[in-house]
Design goal:
dTDP-glucose 4,6-dehydratase; about 350 residues; Epimerase_deHydtase; 11 helices; binds nicotinamide-adenine-dinucleotide; Rossmann fold; alpha/beta
Amino acid sequence: MTYLITGAAGFVGFHLCKRLLSEGKKVIGIDNLNDYYDVKLKKNRIKFLEELSSDIENWNFFEVDLIDKLKLEKIFNNYKPSIIINLAAQAGVRYSIDNPEIYLNSNIIGFGNILECCRKYSIENFLFASSSSVYGANTLVPFNEDHNVDHPVSLYAASKKSNEIIAHSYSHLFKIPITGLRLFTVYGPWGRPDMAPMIFAKSIFEKVAINIFNYGKMKRDFTYIDDVIEGIIRCSNKPATPDYEFDRSKPNPSTSLAPFRIFNLGNSEPIQIMKFIEVLEDIIGIKAIKNFSEMQPGDVETTYADCSKVNDWIDFIPQTSLIKGIEIFIDWYKDYYFEKKNI
Ligand SMILES: NC(=O)c1ccc[n+]([C@@H]2O[C@H](COP(=O)([O-])OP(=O)(O)OC[C@H]3O[C@@H](n4cnc5c(N)ncnc54)[C@H](O)[C@@H]3O)[C@@H](O)[C@H]2O)c1
């Protein structure tokens, strides 16, 4: 069985490949290594995977853009992957305000290209990363998959919601088992430099001010990377099935008569940003310099996952406490940046 992971040089993709390779699985990684954030970090993740797999030859990496349909098809044709996990996407809410085209290209056209390959080459299971951001302006928490998510407040969120709808049509028409996982603020080693945990840690170490939006009143359902990977792996082992109780007169947004499922994959424990910073300060041993400001356009105040559906589906309960997760993250941060492994 061969896995194809798109976005393999990204934060989540890297950890997923690492886990699969360490279990002896055959993995094909795809990434365009774009410069949205530090390309060296992406290359170092790939280098790590190469070293991990040097003796088992289970790893193939291709620097390919999802937009390049011909190259994608060639990879599908040559390797016949059976489990496809699409993590490649232009991420980031704020960046989507000034760079809409990148989101339309990677997240919509690129996503469509992958689905076309899945349609053409018979595959066993397709998973893709959606996002908590689809809940948009909703204030009813915890966010549940049954809630209406038709009010995105950023193009990033709109692209993720579009993925869910487009994926459903492929699942319905071509009977492809598809699972969309709505991830909630993932953090941990090898994290994303554009996200709060890395920005905060860097600022605390460098003793520069942290911008704290919405005057610190934001809450995020921070989810540790290993828990997210466990959820993805379990879903990859359990292709979506039709929901035989699906009622067309009262359609359930998260299931279907097609083999299609949408799940939240979060920690179900929203943490106030100030609390997150406090834990970072304690573990790093330096007080943060705080600069409070108003909420940014496209942002939402609180994310909070109701994970009862995914828990029922794959028996998934996150295992990592915030303190443990931040300890591991900071240990990696010091090792990577202070021991000069970032070159
Ligand atoms: N990290 C989170 O907290 C979080 C939360 C919600 C959803 N997600 C989603 O999970 C997935 C993985 O996120 P991540 O945190 O690893 O992000 P990431 O940016 O670290 O990884 C995405 C990778 O995809 C690659 N990529 C982007 N566009 C591409 C294209 N057109 N062709 C080929 N490769 C391309 C990038 O180079 C990058 O390495 C994304 O779909 C993201 O939207 C992540």
